Amino acid sequence: MTEKKHTALPWILGHDGTDIGCPSHPICDLTRGEWGDYFPSIRLVGETSLDIKAEAFMDGLPYGCVPVEESKANAEFIVRACNSHYELLEALEDLANDCEGWVDAEYKDDGEVYHPALQRKYDRDMETVLKARALIAKARGETDVT
After folding, report:
1. DSSP codes joined into one string, 7-33
2. What is the pLDDT of residues 94-126, one digit of tens each?
């Protein structure tokens, strides 16, 4: 198993439901509401040339909006997924190993598919094992995360 570089589990939802932490410190705060690029700017204020002054303010280019309820649902999903990740990965590894054993026992004799007509059935049944192994590699970070 690879070394765990992330914050120790379990992760928990914060007080407002859109931030994630662990018992000892915060981990992240999910975007909610309007989001975009924000930057300090200066504008001139005043009604006449005698009372004009410069005023600093935050200006921005909003790109979109994430509703608060969606942000809360995202935080809950992340916490559930992270807290169950290693248990699900172990269960899938066990199932893949068991399934491969069952398929081999059903179709193979001395390490070879014992009848050429069964090769297609063997390949089809092994497809599930190969999909599981690909997902295991993805979950371990051994392949692209997309």
Report:
1. PPSPPEE-TTSSEEE-SSSEEEE---E
2. 999 999 999 999 998 888 888 888 999 999 999
39 within domain boundaries: yes
User: E-assigned strands of 14-129?
Assistant: 19-21, 26-29, 33-45, 53-66, 108-109, 112-113
Q: Total structural domains in the chain?
A: 1
Residues of the domain holding 62? 33-66
Closest CA to 34 of 69, 75, 78, 68: 68
Residue 38 structure tokens:
């924000």
Q: What is the pTM of this model?
A: 0.73
